[in-house]
């Protein structure tokens, strides 16, 4: 049984295009769970009218009594699902027609998979394709900091995932067996990041380097892929990253996970805290020492190197 958990919020601009891509999948969705976070536009009316027009009935709509944020809205949507495989879905993307079919095949082939993430094609607000060239030795639009051959599937190790979340939630699906642990752990951290870390903690996280959705980038993305290159922005993001990673550590520590994973999380959080301190105080040489320290810490040096370049440029202005 296939379930899709879709979160909506003021989704009128793109929701119909997304719904069209869902109900025309080559593998039928058994239930589409839609949770709306108190939209102030006509999102719900559009959804209901569209489904009436196309005579589609495999859906349920839940409307939050008050605004919960996207993380809690996804948590609520997930809690209402009954499927064996549960897909997460954003309101503004477009799924490739065979996405569900391809993902289901991988789950059936490999019983070790708890969470499977795929790659994506970037599109702009008008639906036009954006250059998807990966930075050198990376995959998935640079989110996965290791090279993966196209259409190849790899297991994602816990330390890699905790360092960098490798794919957005709209690209992941998971087994029902971990649903309750997911719901209990969704708090501050983005739902996709926590779900992937949870699966990686017991070696069940996999990535297939196949583009399966068109991921829309626009000014109203809840998360998106930030490309702002200024000091204030990087300090703010680093501060947020610390809170998110502390939240994941606290939630995973309540479970019976590997002690080595706990130690790595604490070590990595300390590095991120140092990063924030050095950025705030513009400590270029301290940042160089942090760069050396992270050379063997699952490529976090990618981020530190960008910090160093930015600090040097600021010093020269």
Treating each run of at least 4 consecutive H or I residues as one helix, how many helices? 11
Low-confidence stretches: none
Helix content: 40-55%
In whole angstroms, how far apart are the ends?
59 Å
Number-wise, the strands total 9
What gross morphology would you assign?
Answer: globular
Q: How is the biggest beta sheet arranged? A: 9 strands, mixed
User: Class by helix and strand content?
Assistant: alpha/beta
Identify the quaternary structure here: single chain
Structure commentary:
With 317 residues, this protein is an alpha/beta fold. The chain is built from 11 helices and 9 strands. It has helices spanning 15-23, 43-54, 70-79, 99-109, 158-163, 179-185, 191-201, 231-253, 259-280, 284-293, 301-316; strands spanning 2-8, 31-36, 59-63, 85-89, 94-95, 115-123, 153-155, 172-175, 205-216. Strands 1, 2, 3, 4, 5, 6, 7, 8 and 9 form a 9-stranded mixed β-sheet that branches. Helix 10 packs antiparallel against helix 11. The mean pLDDT is 94.
């Amino acid at each position: 049984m296939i379930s899709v958990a879709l979160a909506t919020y003021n989704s009128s601009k793109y929701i119909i295009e997304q719904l069209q891509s869902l109900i025309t999948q080559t593998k039928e969705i058994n239930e589409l769970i839609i949770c709306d976070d108190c939209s102030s536009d006509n999102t719900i009316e559009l959804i209901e009218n569209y489904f009436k027009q196309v005579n589609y009935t495999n859906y349920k709509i839940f409307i939050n009594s008050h605004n919960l944020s996207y993380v809690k809205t996804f948590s609520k949507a997930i809690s209402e699902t009954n499927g064996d495989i549960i897909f997460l879905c954003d309101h503004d993307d477009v799924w490739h027609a065979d996405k569900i079919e391809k993902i289901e095949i991988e789950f059936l082939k490999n019983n070790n998979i708890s969470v499977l993430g795929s790659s994506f094609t970037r599109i702009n607000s008008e639906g036009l394709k954006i250059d998807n060239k990966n930075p050198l030795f990376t995959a998935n639009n640079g989110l996965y900091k290791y090279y993966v051959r196209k259409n190849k599937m790899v297991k994602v190790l816990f330390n890699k995932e905790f360092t960098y979340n490798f794919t957005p939630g709209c690209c992941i699906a998971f087994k029902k067996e971990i649903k309750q642990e997911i719901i209990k752990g969704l708090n501050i951290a983005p739902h996709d990041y926590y779900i992937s870390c949870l699966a990686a903690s017991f070696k069940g996280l996999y990535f297939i380097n196949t583009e399966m959705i068109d991921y829309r980038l626009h000014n109203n993305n809840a998360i998106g892929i930030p490309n702002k290159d200024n000091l204030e922005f990087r300090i703010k993001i680093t501060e947020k990253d610390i809170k998110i990673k502390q939240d994941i550590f606290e939630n995973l520590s309540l479970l019976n996970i590997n002690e080595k994973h706990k130690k790595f999380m604490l070590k990595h959080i300390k590095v991120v805290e140092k990063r924030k301190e050095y950025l705030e105080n513009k400590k270029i040489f301290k940042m160089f020492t942090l760069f050396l320290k992270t050379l063997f810490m699952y490529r976090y040096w990618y981020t530190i190197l960008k910090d160093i370049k930015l600090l040097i440029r600021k010093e020269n202005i």
